[in-house]
Write a structure and sequence with these properties.
alpha/beta; three-stranded antiparallel beta sheet; 14 helices
Length: about 400
């Protein structure tokens, strides 16, 4: 057995289940959950209709590179969304079965075990970054994302010695769990550091279309590179998905785009990996990437929920409404996120995720997720409001 399997940490939801196991919540209250980032809004119906129309194509093997029409649709969407001069669908785009699969696999394909193999990750973080690194024989370098820095990693605090060992850095913007957005200047500073120290920038942008200000869409890594005149997107890879954008997490459809040399190597890896996207899903994906009306309606629904929850919780909890994503990242009044999570479940039949489960002890020995909760505002408005009210009621009881 691969000995690195033993290095994998329990997933946050495993830890949460163990935390709640011995508790008995009030049976008269309906269970509510703000835990998993799985959209509960209706999936984009036109994409499902397309899927059904092409269901006979499940009888055919798909190619790893995907249909040319899908790659073109993705290239056109990315070019429009991020104001690019262009994106070559033949060499700079690769469809993938959701960003989770691609993020995990790209580390296996790119990391060189013959030399120091550190992968820088934001802390707290999406745990796939860490697991992928460990199974590729690498070592995570945790970059604390704390309130004092707008919940963004302080990349200028990393020493030159550390950068020299970094082969890849993950950026998550908008961030999970914090909702923080990486400014274009930070992306460009990372590109300069990558040039200096020769590492790959992998930007997880799967929440990029869930932003609260319609006039301020989050910038992306390719956009930052293009603004520098770097239309080859050297050392840059971005990951996008239909899961959040179109409420289609079960479709497992996304893409990776950027540096053609990196895409070519990743395509070769995935050819052996055997994970090509099925043809009906490719057709459904084209439908989803081609429409923006349903995405704007999706953003409207999240804005309504953020406004409602903020009105309820702001008087009793310390948090900033994020620029994007569907998470809140509030501080727990007494600082013990595990104890507060247990109490919420035991007294209010409400499940939340302790912030410490999303992080690791950083350079100062402190877990930057400790003392916070990740609240996923993914359900419909009414149950989300009810969950926020239960949380407030518990806090006001003391």
């Amino acid at each position: 057995m691969n000995p690195d399997i033993d290095a994998l940490k329990p997933y946050p939801f495993e830890r949460l289940a163990a935390l709640k196991k011995a508790l008995t919540p009030p049976p008269e209250l309906e269970p509510l959950a703000l835990t998993i980032g799985e959209p509960q809004h209706p999936p984009y119906a036109a994409a499902l209709e397309t899927l059904h129309r092409h269901q006979a194509e499940f009888a055919r093997y798909p190619a790893t590179t995907g249909l040319p029409e899908l790659r073109r649709t993705i290239a056109d969407w990315t070019t429009r969304r991020f104001a690019l001069a262009g994106l070559d669908p033949e060499t700079q785009v690769l469809p993938v079965n959701g960003t989770r699969e691609a993020i995990f696999a790209v580390v296996q394909a790119m990391l060189d075990r013959s030399r120091p193999a550190r992968v820088a990750v934001p802390n707290p973080f999406y745990q796939i970054y860490e697991g992928a690194t460990l199974l590729a024989g690498g070592t995570p370098l945790y970059l604390d994302a704390v309130a004092a820095n707008g919940f963004r990693p302080d990349i200028d605090a990393v020493s030159s010695d550390d950068w020299r060992q970094v082969q890849m850095i993950f950026v998550c913007s908008p961030g999970n769990p914090t909702g923080a957005v990486t400014p274009i200047e930070d992306f460009q500073r990372l590109i300069e550091l990558a040039d200096e120290h020769d590492f790959i920038i992998a930007s997880d942008e799967c929440y990029s279309e869930l932003y609260l200000d319609e006039d301020a869409p989050p910038p992306g890594l390719l956009q930052a590179a293009a603004a520098m005149g770097r239309h080859d997107y050297h050392r840059c890879l971005v990951f996008h998905s239909l899961s959040k954008r179109s409420n289609l997490p079960g479709l497992r459809s996304g893409f990776v785009a950027g540096d053609a040399d990196l895409i070519q190597a990743f395509k070769r890896y995935r050819t052996y990996h055997g994970c090509a996207m099925s043809l009906p899903i490719q057709h459904a994906s084209m439908t989803a990437w081609s429409d923006e009306a349903h995405v704007r309606a999706n953003r409207d629904a999240y804005r309504e929920k953020f406004a409602a929850v903020t009105e309820i919780l702001a008087p009793v909890m310390d948090f900033s409404t994020p620029e994007a994503s569907f998470y809140l990242w509030p501080a727990v009044p007494d600082g013990d996120d595990e104890a507060f999570t247990r109490r919420l479940y035991a007294e209010a039949h409400l499940s939340v995720l302790p912030g410490s489960y999303m992080g690791r002890p950083g350079a100062n020995g402190i877990n930057p997720g400790s003392g916070r909760l990740r609240l996923a505002l993914v359900d419909a408005l009414a149950p989300t409001r009810e969950a926020a009210q239960r949380l407030r009621d518990l806090l006001e009881r003391g």
